[in-house]
Amino acid sequence: MSSLMAQGCLPPCALPFISPLSPLHPRCRRRRPRRRDQMTLEPPPPPPQRYRAVVSYDGTRFYGFQLQKGVAHRPTIQGALERVLQRRFGFPSPPVRVTGASRTDAGVHARGQVVHFDAPPSHYARLGDANYAAELEYVLNRLLPDEVRVRALRPAPPPTWCWIRRGDPLRLQRVQRLLPWSATHSATSKQYTYRILLGAVSDPLLGRFAHHERWPLRRYDALFALMRAWQGQHDFGAFAHPAAVQEQQRIASPRGTVRCIHQSTAQVVTEFGVPDVLHLHFHLDGALRHMLRNMVGTLLAVACGRLELEEALACLHGGVAQRERLRQRIRVAPARGLCLDRVHYPDGYPGVHAAEMREAPSRLSVPVKS
Q1: What is the pLDDT of residues 296-336, one digit of tens each?
Q2: CB 85 within 8 A of CB 140
Q3: What is the CATH number of domain 50-179?
Q4: The domain over range 189-344 is classified in CATH as 3.30.70.660
Q5: Catalytic annotation on 105?
Q6: Which residue range or ranges hold the Pseudouridine synthase I TruA alpha/beta domain (predicted)?
Q7: pTM value?
Q8: Catalytic residue among 105, 129, 168, 285
Q9: Cα–Cα distance, 170 to 167 (Å, whole number)
């Protein structure tokens, strides 16, 4: 090049031009590590362990089971359980949430309410311990109020494949999904009992858990006939709270206000030495808000003679359209007489564990004097 400049072929100020290398193809460039690469290198986190338990409570001073929006200061069963679990697990983030099988109203009692919750990641190391559930149940009962008790706390079954309905209500599609065990959606049926004191004077010991009916019940034949008519699948919209009907319409539930009562019976028993205690048993697949209390109020009105049996049957067959007519003729039964006895599941929970608890030997050994 210097010889070319000496011969005058190139000006002195000219610089040689060197063509750069051709750029690499985008596919040849080094790509950044993607998220799926990190997932293959790092072990996946263990799935959350779900626990289920049976909760018994006296609902006299509680405002129902579910937390109330805007009035967090009101005591509820869900709030009491979540506060104790937060304290036991060290206030994890996100907080522990409790889900119940039935959203009982304020003042309603329960002997067999079933709940579930997920253990936080900080306690995954102890999930394999066989005594962890028993220790957790013991701690919860020590921290909970005297009106609430937990029993039969066990790990929930693993998730299972289920068919669900998805899409527009007019064009539903069945889709298979892997769903975890749920205290609400896995339940098949529930059992309720309503207690009524028939004596002239109320009993102070049972008055907290039973309704005292001052009017004499003279038409037991009409009461039994109405309970037999309720058995089967019917539209119980006339016995539901207006908010429950609006909720079913908002979520576009396929069954709406239709429920199935498998069995409904009535019997007069002697309970705790008190004679003439009327037990109304209901075994059904689910209940709407205030549905059972309105049904009990209808039974009392028919048995006392304030409502004819034909009118009650017309309200049953009329559905939601007869709700206002029924409301003017009956009184809603008080909540203190209603109790949730048991929730049924396909695997037999909690009956299996209850039988194990009854057959467990006692830890106390009392010497017998010969």
Answers
A1: 999 999 998 888 898 888 888 887 777 788 888 888 999 99
A2: yes
A3: 3.30.70.580
A4: yes
A5: yes
A6: 53-117, 228-346
A7: 0.78
A8: 105
A9: 8
